[in-house]
Design the sequence.
């Protein structure tokens, strides 16, 4: 099954030749902000491959074993339009089949990125027959007055197709539907659990497309679908969007300039509607063949050095226009941030908006951010970019091992509000209210230092930098996360599970400090909690490890007041 024509119907015999038939499982679904795989909560914790890795099954072969050794359960792989449809109407999904086969061997799950017409605000993954026919597939036109990130003077330009082209939409949608139809035929046990529709969409170097098609749309009326959404969701709109709409009097009809104005903020809204409508057309059509959860990811903006749309991709699912995307693209299950900035807490709060399920498809190797996302924003998954660069003995691998048996525990706690994240930036203490207790969380090493000084002993020297999370001659070293971080989960009956490293938690109730009754080390498996050592004596000075990620269960003695 080397080349699959778009109109070719697969027989059962053909399918069984590709993969052994498996017991049919339930199609993955997102319900109540949780990802259900085969009907059970699933935390999509793992990593995204580099953009070109999955294009070669041979290149990937040793990487799969490494990912398994890192306790990665979910791999975000790629499907390139130029590779799977090199000639119009002829499809080759061998690289997809290879990813599914390797994931199945290791009981991993996949998220597939459709690198279609748009990738990082350019069109480099569109096939040659698309990029070479500018009459049929017109290019976007930018004023070009803005500087562009990730390029240099004299660099060859990247192709940027116009999102306003109906021919482009039809071609991209046809190829995407062929992919979903193929998955429905060959992936019967649903190794693939989600699909990303294109990648970091939007337009750079200008706040809107200036092509003839775009100019015509700009002068046309704002769709009533958008205006009705703004009116009915006015109380929950992002303040930036509400401000743009209100300055023109919150009009209920008119052209784009009449309703929103003519500056970059108005033009970002215009581009967001059209990019979102394009992705909606793909998602809706693809789901008719296989209704997997689908999402889009966003290049963050505004951010330092990129304060206006066009410096970051104008029209992409950035924080200012999330509501526009929700109005235009109901078939998308979520809008997801790619986090490469240091202000992770702020970004997660931005996208934890109006019921949007939280999934981070791309992020830096900063392990503590994962725990904050799970505990504070009820994330259903988190993915580090360039996962194959990670170390099998790194901090991230420790975290994935510690969390590997906790899907049901964390999902239930998220649904019932019994979980909190810990992430001590610059060692600053935090106070958490959970399970009727007030929990003071502090950096353990800072406390130990102060205790030694209090008795006249010399403070310990500062710890050495943590080993790099990444390895390889061409890889930039990334030190491990030296912050204190973790999760605290209320199990009821004065009992809590704590997983993390580097912090101390003191529990109080009714303004009185509680007393520790029992502390167990352990971990979760599919069958439940598995106990290790019972900690007492000196070990209770630091029940949560400072040099590694650990898990403990602590029971408090709820003394009756006389």
Sequence:
């Amino acid at each position: 099954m080397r080349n699959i024509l778009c109109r070719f119907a697969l027989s059962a015999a053909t399918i069984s030749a590709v993969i052994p038939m498996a017991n049919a499982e339930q199609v993955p679904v997102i319900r109540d902000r949780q990802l259900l795989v085969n009907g059970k909560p699933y935390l999509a914790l793992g990593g995204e491959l580099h953009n070109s890795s999955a294009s070669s099954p041979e290149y990937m072969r040793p990487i799969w074993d490494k990912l398994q050794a890192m306790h990665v359960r979910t791999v975000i792989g790629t499907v390139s339009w130029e590779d799977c449809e090199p000639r119009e109407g002829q499809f080759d999904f061998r690289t997809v089949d290879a990813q599914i086969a390797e994931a199945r061997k290791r009981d991993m799950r996949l998220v597939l990125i459709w690198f279609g017409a748009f990738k990082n605000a350019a069109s480099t993954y569109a096939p040659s027959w698309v990029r070479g026919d500018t009459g049929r597939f017109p290019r976007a036109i930018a004023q070009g007055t803005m500087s562009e990130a990730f390029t240099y003077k004299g660099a060859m330009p990247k192709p940027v197709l116009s999102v306003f082209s109906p021919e482009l939409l039809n071609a991209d949608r046809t190829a995407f539907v062929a992919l979903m139809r193929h998955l429905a035929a060959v992936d019967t046990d649903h190794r693939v659990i989600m699909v990303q529709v294109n990648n970091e969409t939007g337009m750079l170097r200008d706040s809107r497309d200036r092509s003839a098609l775009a100019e015509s749309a700009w002068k046309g009326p704002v769709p009533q679908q958008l205006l009705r959404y703004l009116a009915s969701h006015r109380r929950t709109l992002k303040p930036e969007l509400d401000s743009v709409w209100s300055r023109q009097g919150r009009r209920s009809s008119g052209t784009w300039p009449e309703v929103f104005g003519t500056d970059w903020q108005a033009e970002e809204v215009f581009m967001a509607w059209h990019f979102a409508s394009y992705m909606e057309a793909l998602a809706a059509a693809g789901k008719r063949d296989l209704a997997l959860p689908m999402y889009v990811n966003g290049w963050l903006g505004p951010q330092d050095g990129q304060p206006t749309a066009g410096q970051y991709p104008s029209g992409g699912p950035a924080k200012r226009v999330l509501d526009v995307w929700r109005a235009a693209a109901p078939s998308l299950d979520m809008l997801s941030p790619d986090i490469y900035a240091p202000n992770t807490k702020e970004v997660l709060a931005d996208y934890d908006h109006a019921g949007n399920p939280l999934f981070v498809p791309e992020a830096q190797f900063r392990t503590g951010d994962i725990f904050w996302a799970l505990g504070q924003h009820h994330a259903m998954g988190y993915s580090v970019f360039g996962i194959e660069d990670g170390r099998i003995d790194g901090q991230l691998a420790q975290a994935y091992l510690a969390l590997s048996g906790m899907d049901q525990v964390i999902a239930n706690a998220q649904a019932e509000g019994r979980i909190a994240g810990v992430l001590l930036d610059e060692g600053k203490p935090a106070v958490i209210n959970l399970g009727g207790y007030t929990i003071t969380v502090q950096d353990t090493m800072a406390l130990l230092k102060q205790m030694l000084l209090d008795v006249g002993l010399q403070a310990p020297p500062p710890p050495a930098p943590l080993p790099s999370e990444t390895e390889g001659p061409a890889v930039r070293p990334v030190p491990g996360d030296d912050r204190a971080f973790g999760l605290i989960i209320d199990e009821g009956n004065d009992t809590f599970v704590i997983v993390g490293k580097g912090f101390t938690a003191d529990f109080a109730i009714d303004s009185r400090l509680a007393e520790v009754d029992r502390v167990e080390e352990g971990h979760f498996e599919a069958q439940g909690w598995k106990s290790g050592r019972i900690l007492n004596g000196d070990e209770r000075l630091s029940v949560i490890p400072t040099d590694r990620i650990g898990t403990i269960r602590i029971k408090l003695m709820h003394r009756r007041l006389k």
In short: The first strand starts at residue 4 and ends at 5.
